[in-house]
Amino acid sequence: MTYTNTEENYIKAIYHLEHEHESVGTNLLSAAMQTKPASVTDMLKKLEAKKLLHYEKYRGFRLSDQGNKLALTIIRKHRLWEYFLVEKLGFNWDEVHVLAEQLEHVSSEDLISRLDEFLEHPAFDPHGDPIPDVKGKFRKINQDNLLGLPLKKNLKVSAVKNQETEMLNLLTQYEIKIGTQLKILRRFAYDGSVEIRIEKNAATILSKQVAQHIYCNL
Fold it and tell me: What is the pLDDT of residue 22?
């Protein structure tokens, strides 16, 4: 069965919301999709008719097995394209999300399989998010953000959870990217900010708002 780009966007949004909230209702999805609740209701009915989700009283909508499989397929394509754009075409990590949003709707399974093989089966995208394999399986790593990691240990940045352009631009100014090695020197109880040193550079203070989105391997 084929799906429209809008239907796929809804499925992906529901998948992410399910991992952030106990239930996914119309209002929550409306905010995520930036559209009117009435439009969301109409789309949810279509997706339910296609057996991509279920409605549970008091719990809202949840993806069916078929819907979950579709979501992982879309996410796989999105993250493979992001990896390709950064590693092979030289785009910056803050430039690829919008492009990948368009490319993720390419329906050719053969193209995506060849892309994955060409890229030598990367496990993570340029922001540190895991790329599902063809069976929808993720490679998991043990990681935590800068607010919970130990002081004065050698750490390596493994993921950035806030991938808004402004955030990624800021991290670029700090010379922080996936693979950057750093140490946490101090935490300040007053405002939750964190003092770090990146390799041999001078110490830098990050706000709590920034530090909570930077993850490192344990």
Answer: 80
